[in-house]
Design brief:
two-stranded antiparallel sheet, mainly alpha
């Protein structure tokens, strides 16, 4: 530290660099560019609309199938969630598993809804077709033994008291 000091007269100085946050420069640069992209492309408004459209159209599919008490989207447009309930309208991990399993058959991975800027009409339509197919199976499971519709284990919540 003395080599970089300015207190000693007539001594060659050494430049000292503290890099406490030096490694963060690339991530800060990425953040700045991301904000520019979001503003330029109106991403926030687009994502809210996409989520709202997904929710309302999926809810209409469930309503048309007369299972809207058992499956529905809720939450804000920017971060909707899907609710899976059993024949007694109780939250059900079995029915959540059936829904996610059936969506995977349509090549849609949706353990939760994660909207991004790149989602557009093509992705929305594909998702809604998948939801319609998945809910057809879901409805059958509501009218029978849901366990016979499972292809694997029932999913578990990440945050749980016991394994």
């Amino acid at each position: 530290m003395e080599l970089g000091s300015i207190t000693k007269k007539n001594q060659e100085r050494v430049f000292l660099l503290s890099t406490t946050h030096g490694a963060e420069m690339s991530s800060l640069g990425a953040f700045v560019e991301t904000v520019k992209f979001i503003k330029k492309n109106n991403t926030i408004k687009k994502n809210w609309k996409y989520g709202s459209d997904l929710s309302s159209k999926a809810n209409q599919i469930a309503k048309d199938m007369k299972i809207n008490d058992n499956f529905y989207f809720s939450g804000p447009g920017c971060s909707p969630i899907f609710n899976c309930k059993d024949e007694n309208s109780q939250n059900s991990m079995i029915f959540r598993t059936i829904f996610i399993q059936e969506m995977l058959k349509s090549k849609i991975f949706i353990p939760w809804v994660a909207i991004c800027h790149r989602h557009g009409e093509k992705e929305l339509n594909k998702t809604l077709i998948g939801i319609e197919k998945a809910l057809a199976v879901y409805k059958k499971a509501l009218n029978g033994n849901p366990k016979k519709f499972l292809l694997g284990d029932v999913i578990k919540p990440v945050f749980r008291k016991f394994n």
